[in-house]
Amino acid sequence: MLDGPSFPPNSPVNLKIVLTVLRLISAAILFQSLFYKFGSHPDSILLFGTLGVEPWGRYLLGTVELAIVVLLLIPKTSLLGAIGGIGVMTGAIFTHLFFIGINFNGDGGRLFMLASGCFLACFLQCLILKNQILGYVKHRHFI
Quick check: keyword Membrane in the entry (predicted)? Predict the structure, then answer.
């Protein structure tokens, strides 16, 4: 299994603190959006309705994001959560850029900025732990 902030074993304390802060930022952004999705907020209904996937798309994405939050908060699975966060936030960013626009429903680009911030936090976690990802891929003989 991929280990989160415990890799590399001799890493300085500062690196572990940075990873913890990045995990908490990405988990907080994903978690706060769950209230809108599961709470049937009008903006969330409008967004998913515009995409033509209301309500099942909203519930499905909320469930996936909840699973990613749990993975991010458990140190041993946080890297898997970060990889999942990159995937989900890539979808959110592309949806904003190509379908609904950066400024959706007069939010001033807030949703787009949250998706971009979460993507960046998840990407930085993967960048810091890239040797662990490469070691896992090589061990499994993918490359």
Answer: yes
How many C-beta neighbours within 10 Å does residue 32 have? 11
Question: Rounded to an integer, what distance in angstroms lies between the CA atom of residue 16 and that of residue 118?
Answer: 18
What single-letter amino acid sits at 31?
Answer: F
CA distance 142 to 96: 33
* H or E element in which residue 111 lies: helix 110-128
Please give the model's pTM, rounded to 2 decimal places: 0.87
Positive or negative, the CA dihedral 129, 132, 136, 141 is positive
Is the peptide bond prior to 55 cis by the omega test (within 30 degrees of 0)? yes
Q: Which residue reads 């939050």 in tokens?
A: 69
Rounded CA-CA distance 35/46 in Å is 15
Structure tokens at 91: 């979808």
